[in-house]
Specification:
With about 300 residues, the protein is an alpha/beta fold. It contains 13 helices and four strands. It has two domains: about 250 residues; about 35 residues. A four-stranded mixed sheet has the order 1-2-4-3. The chain is globular and about 75 Å long. The N and C termini lie far apart (about 60 Å).
Length: about 300
């Protein structure tokens, strides 16, 4: 099989698994090429290549394979072919299906039913997300479900710490000005909803939860070279850069009343709380009602 120069450059192989048709190889290569053309994308691919060269034992046959994703839904996956006794996930394999994003594909149908969910929905963004997982496995920092802590409170919809990292880094990629076209910031791992406006800036993102600072600090300690390289990019959303540039300010946002309230309410209830606050601010003085009466009026309108 003739290898594309990007496969040779980064130690990545597109394995068709005897699949033919649907232009799978071309679609996957197009997504990979788009990732390589961006600053954040090259940082990720070069980081994978580093482990292919220096830690080949962490990868099956010393390479990272991308194989067809056969589940039929709007998704991809990164699986580990080896989990050691400490729960480390090694020998990653990425599963990706570019046709899911074409007209009539699973992602295209999903968007028809969820027109407001456009965060991280492009083919290259989906592949990038899975490559972040693969990088974490190749670097020996990813653990299986029994060892990976779940995310709670304000971050509960990210599911676990590995998905939090993958969504976070993909959002930095999405706002990289060298990455065009792009969708918009993804809210969490539960859906392709858009990240809320009160946490969609580099520092304000730390208000997502009191745990945000700890998780980003942990990620930066586990993958210092990769995260420090992300500081150099010009992404408009870059909490990693914010952490390195002013960790005290990031800590203050993470320990703010907003972060504590968000943790106490959870992400869904927080949305309703924010709506209520906006309603009160715009209608309280005008209506002459007490805060309690105003809240009851707002709540009745939501039913």
């Amino acid at each position: 099989m003739k290898l594309h120069f990007l496969e040779k450059k980064y130690g990545i192989r597109i394995n068709l698994l005897d699949w033919s048709g649907d232009d799978y190889e071309a679609g996957t290569l197009n997504a990979l090429i788009k990732i390589d053309r961006s600053d954040v994308g090259r940082i990720l691919l070069e980081s994978i290549a580093y482990h292919v060269k220096h830690n080949p034992g962490n990868l099956a046959h010393g390479i990272l394979e991308i194989r067809p994703y056969a589940q039929g839904d709007c998704n991809g996956s990164s699986d580990s072919d080896l989990t050691n006794k400490r729960g480390q996930q090694l020998e990653p394999v990425v599963h990706f299906w570019p046709k899911a994003f074409a007209r009539g594909g699973a992602c295209s149908k999903y968007l028809e039913d969820h027109r407001d969910e456009i965060g991280g929905i492009l083919p290259d963004e989906a592949l990038f997300h899975e490559l972040v997982h693969a990088f974490r496995m190749a670097s020996g920092k990813s653990t299986d479900a029994t060892h990976t802590p779940i995310t709670r409170s304000g971050l509960s919809n990210y599911d676990n710490e590995e998905e939090f990292i993958a969504v976070l880094v993909t959002n930095i990629y999405i706002t990289d000005p060298s990455n065009k076209p792009a969708s918009t910031l993804r809210r969490d791992h539960h859906s392709f909803g858009v990240l809320e406006s009160d946490v969609n800036q580099s520092f304000t993102f730390f208000r997502s939860s009191v745990s945000t600072y700890r998780l980003i600090e942990k990620f930066c300690k586990e993958n210092p070279s990769f995260t420090r390289n992300l500081v150099k990019v010009k992404s408009s959303f870059n909490p990693i850069a914010a952490f390195y540039q002013d960790s005290m300010q990031a800590w203050i946002y993470a320990n703010s009343q907003a972060a504590e309230t968000r943790d106490a309410l959870g992400p869904e209830t927080w949305d309703r709380y924010q709506e209520m606050r906006k309603y009160s601010e715009t209608n309280l003085l005008r209506s002459g009602l007490s805060p309690e009466e105003n809240f009851k009026k707002w709540l009745a309108g939501k039913k």
